[in-house]
UniProtKB/TrEMBL annotation:
It is found in: Cytoplasm. One of its GO terms (cellular component) is cytosol. This is Cystatin domain-containing protein. It comes from Patiria miniata (Bat star). Belongs to the cystatin family. Residues 6-87 form the Cystatin domain. The keyword Cytoplasm applies. PROSITE patterns: CYSTATIN. It comes from the Eukaryota.
Length: 101
């Protein structure tokens, strides 16, 4: 995948999660847990990709304990509001972090 960071509509290559990305993930944790029907004691963002739109879309790979991972899609508005979109469970570390289809 070509790195299209900063290009409207294009998704970036995967990047290591930062404290800012962990904060976004934490903001939607209740919705993620509800969507997947699980409570996560471990919830650590490890990788993310981003897409420039009228705001930013983020897809984040999150470790939820041991070798268990989830992917979370969220949107951050230009005003900084974080909105949950979708979550995928039952993933492993080597499942690729790719743009949503």
């Amino acid at each position: 995948m070509a790195n299209t960071k900063g290009t409207p509509g294009g998704w970036s290559d995967p990047m290591p999660a930062t404290p800012k990305i962990q904060g976004y993930a934490d903001a939607v944790k209740p919705q993620v847990q509800e969507a997947l029907g699980k409570d996560f004691a471990v919830y650590k963002a490890v990788l993310y990709i981003e897409q420039v739109v009228a705001g930013m879309n983020y897809k984040i790979k999150i470790n939820v304990g041991g070798t268990n991972f989830i992917h979370v899609l969220l949107f951050v508005s230009l005003q900084g509001l974080v909105e949950f979109n979708q979550a995928w469970g039952g993933l492993k570390e080597d499942d690729p972090l790719e743009p949503p289809k």
